[in-house]
Specification:
Strand content: 35-45%
Helix content: 10-25%
Shape: elongated
Number of helices: 2
Structural class: mainly beta
Distance between the termini: 18 Å
Largest sheet: 13 strands, mixed
Radius of gyration: 47 Å
Amino acid sequence: MYKSFKKPCLILLSAIIAAMLVLACAFMLSPKTTAHADAEETHDHSTMTELTARPAGGNLTAGAYYLGDNISGNITVSGTVTLCLNGHNVTGDGNDSVITVSQNATFTLCDCKDAGIITGGNAERGGGVLVSGGAFTMSGGTISSNTATSGGGVFVWNSGTFIMNGGTIRENIASSGGGGVFVNTTFTMTGGTISENTAESYGGGVYLNGSTTFKMSGGTISRNTANTGGGVFLANGSTFEVFGAPNVTGNEKTDGSDNNVDVNYDICTVTGKLTAGAEIGVNRIGEIATGYNQSDAPSNYFIPDDAEKCVYLSDEPSGTVTIGNHNWENAPWMANHLAHWRACQNGCGTWKDNEFHNFNQEVVGEMYLKSAATCTEKAVCYKSCECGAYGEETFEYGKALGHSLTHHEAVAATDEEDGNTEYWSCGECDNYFSDETGENEITDKSSVVLNRLKPTTPAPDNNGSDQTPTAPAEEPKSYWWLFLLLIPIAIVVGGVMLGIYDYKKQKENNK
């Protein structure tokens, strides 16, 4: 029977090994896809049109394009256009916006090599990109070293929209507002970086004008500079909505002081959960945001530009977040086994007086009591710290209680009862003494007992003999359970013996 299965088994095993080798080769030879920086989508240039020079008349019409070389001159986008910088630059002529997104146009900028730059622009609005009624989505690339009166990097107006998912806007300059971005309509930022831009007046990173709405759920706005609102400036009537993990930190005024989000005219609105990585620096003293309804403290996400100030939830139903002074009044001590501190009563999570314990206080109280006073010893307490915690070192206080003695007169022993010597007993410590002052303790309490004079003998019974109780007769033990236990053992042993016999018989037959 073994021989009849041997060949099919070998064939099946060989087939399994061959299939595994084929799968391994296919995995190693399969093409790999590389993800681009800033979460940029992978695209196939074979389906796009190559640009090696500025299009005729500077008009870039509907289609998908990639740069095959650096190009110079300004471009106007119309229709739906996707442009991959492909690591190359578009350099403006210095007399207008480098790229203008015209009314109703849709423009998507990306860069699969993460090295391309839009630069050299100089305009009244939007030195790098002017969005005039169209829609601009930035997924990659860099807008850098452009200048304008407003919106050194990007200017959005006339019902236009700007979505920034990735890429960088840096080192642009506005002589008025919005060194990086100036928005008159709608700006949504989920990723990317706006940094090192400068505005001589308002909004070094972003300027929100009038009824503008800026929704920020990710990305970073940092190291920008302006006279007011180094990071983000909210003009009267504008809305700054935050959720997710936005980061607006490290921005400054022109005098070098911290100035991230300026909310002197309008405040932030929290429209969703803020998550790890969210940091929003705010300059104002007073209400700075509404809509905060998370269980953790808002100080985890909103950072006052003045480090001495406090961020706290001032009105829970409306989720109003306020920056103000810390409240240390009547702040209770908090402690662990090593140190103590006080927490701000606003609930901002800030501590002060954080020090190691110093157990130098001799405070009498039940919580510090190690042992109560006895008849002969004083009470003992643990030494404590100013915060209320206590250590292992102790001190004594008060006086010993003294004995509460009861006099026991001498009683002679009789034939029927024991007697005793004269002694005094304490009702508190239960010790015996030989004197009324309680100075001489009787350590062996049995020594005060005087035994009766002679033992009492039992009375004889009617026959004149002592009654001696007899133990009940012991019932004979039963071993029936042992017999029941032997039955299955005998069956098992018999089965084993039969098996051995059968095995030997088969072995003899096979010879």
